[in-house]
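Deliverable D5.2: sample structural annotation.
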Amino acid sequence: MVDIEKLVSPDGSLVSRRLWFDEEVYRLEQERVFGRCWLFLGHESQIRDPGEYFTTTIGEAPVIIVRGKDGKIHGHLNSCTHRGLRVCRSDSGKAANFVCPYHGWIFANDGRLVGMPEQREAYSDLDMSKWGLIPVARVESYKGLIFGNLDANAISLRDYLGDLAFYLDAQVDRREGGTELVGGVHRWRVKANWKMPAENMVGDVYHAAWSHQSIVRLQSMSPLNSDPDGVISGYGDIQQHGVNFACANGHGGTTRFYPVDAHPEQRMPGEAPEIRPPEVNEYFRRVQPEADERLGPVKSRIKGATLTVFPTLSILGSVFTIRVAHPRGPQESEIWSWVLVDRDAPQEVKDYIRGYYTFTFGPGGTFESDDGENWEQVTEGARIAAAADHPFHFGMSQGKEYAHAELPGQCGPILSEHTQRAMYRQWHDLMVKP
């Protein structure tokens, strides 16, 4: 039996390789991590009208998320209460009822059991009010992002996000109309434990210049790297203004925080404004004053790069994408990835953003292919039997964390692993608690 207590050192700087491959650890995570945390399920723009639904998973548990007649968002386990089959086989759609394909039990889209074949003869005395679909204990939204929790006693979603909401707002609350997902969902599998994508985006800037050097080198050599006004773009900008932040409950990320007198175009979202079509840059210039007013004098100086809402939601603000790494076994994950845009942006802006995402962090994107290969090799390297007693090292810049005068959470230099240490300490706290 694995001794969970010893898998992560108290300061988070040493982490056992078992976290990335062990079946026993993985099975316990389904109960103690995915059964307790708020998990991202989707975006409100996917279910605008009553009866619209989509299906997803919480950990390995299949769920249906549906907007009810009352306009509220409901979640149910996608599992018939008679024999456990999935009652909805579609990814999304609009339905009044869900019907089990085995014996035909019928559930209203609010989860109530409303009928079955041969009801009078077979189930005349069944109390149908007790056999509806099992509800997801808690479903709440934060500025369009829908989360669910299987623990009825969990703290509220807003309390769970804590200080991370400050950084999240800079990406999803820039405009009155909010955000929406466009173009459906990309899904692909990697032979890597689910913690690899989470760890990568919780603040791992260290890998970028090395793993993505072919892209970074092209950018640094380009005459487009800075404009005539001296605006530094790309990786150099991250080095100059980057801050890593770790928040309570295992969340964290990396961002740029500009001085008050920074060039206004530096604060516009996304990367490489030099190569954007003029109409796209014009859109961001036009809406920047609205964003400044909504976000206020401090948040408006933030431009997000990556962040992770523990355990599995990551947002890559630099390329307008949002994603989840669903666990599909101790050594395999299924990435679900969407394009996130301002709902009121012109169509040509949305089209450009979608294309830029596809080029960079889509399933065949230039950056994504680098990362996927790395994650798979970490998982493979973790299970080498001869190295089982040698933990992974997460001690970079240990002791250099600090409290920032204007930014919440625990901050640190961009070349730091304090965000990963905080993430694995949170994982450990959950796993040792019965």
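Annotation notes: The chain is about 30% helix and 25% strand. Residues 401 and 412 are 5 Å apart (CA to CA).
The annotation will be released with the project's public dataset once the embargo ends.
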